[in-house]
Amino acid sequence: MSKPQQPQATKSKELKIVTRHIVSLSDVEKNPRLVKLLYITSLFKDISEKALLHLLYYMRQNGYDLGYNFVVIAQTPTSKDVSSDLAVLKYLGLVEVNEKKKLAASSLGREFLGKHLETTLRNDKDVIDKLVNELKVKIAPVDAEVEIKVKRRPG
User: Fold this and answer.
1) Which run of H or E residues covers position 8?
2) 42: closest CA among 125, 92, 113?
3) How do residues 51-70 score in pLDDT, each as one tens digit?
4) Whole-angstrom Cα distance, residue 19 to residue 71?
5) CA distance 122 to 125
């Protein structure tokens, strides 16, 4: 006796399409928040994303609000908005991630700031400089912690 044939189940994969807006340098020029984020990043030789999030959070607590929403989990501020803006800056090559997993303004980013710093940040530059200098001491341990964790990971 032959077994009755059963229909074979077909496996298919679904293709999920996610649309994203294409971002250009002119979009960054028009967005003062992105220019300010790039400028703050450029004030450091390199800075971990975690330390940058802490810095922006402390700046907000000290009265300078860039408009980012933060969620604090276990005394660690996080923000999807900051991560999204950093992704834009990385995508355009204005910020790069070095071998220590830290953010640094690229040569293109520094050149961009040279052209657009005065027009976009004319009123904010001194306030940002002052706050960053005050808060560097507060975020240094966070940056060091990230660096130690990166060194511990096997290569």
Assistant:
1) none
2) 113
3) 999 999 999 999 999 999 99
4) 26
5) 6
What's the confidence (pLDDT) of residue 113? Answer: 92
Tokens of 65: 């609000």
| CA–CA dist 101, 150 (Å, integer) | 7
Q: State how far the Cα of 89 lies from the Cα of 36, in Å rounded to an integer.
A: 11
Residue 122 CA to residue 45 CA, distance in Å, equals 23
User: Which pair of tokens denotes residue 42?
Assistant: 């450029």
Q: Which DSSP string corresponds to 60-119? A: HHTT---S---EEETTEEE-HHHHHHHHHHHHTTSEEE-TTS-EEE-HHHHHHHHHHHHH
Widest CA span of the chain, in angstroms?
A: 89
Domain definitions of the chain by residue range = 25-152
